[in-house]
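Lab manual, section 2.4: Encoding a predicted structure.

Procedure: take the sequence of the chain (57 residues), apply the prediction step described in section 2.3, and record the output as structure tokens. A sample record is shown.
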Amino acid sequence: MNVVDMIIRQGGECLITSQILIEFWVVATRPKDVNGLGWTTQTIQQEINQILSQFFY
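Recorded output:
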């Protein structure tokens, strides 16, 4: 069970905004040598799809 599932099962509400996804994209695609993850746009798109799938049941 992941954290989002746990919060929902306990009656909580989880929200995600476009701003969060934009900032995640920026950090994830930033090169490692400047404090980013250095991911490709394809990798980050897959990760964002995975994140979104947790919020839309």
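Check your result against the sample. Helices lie at 3-9, 18-29, 41-55.
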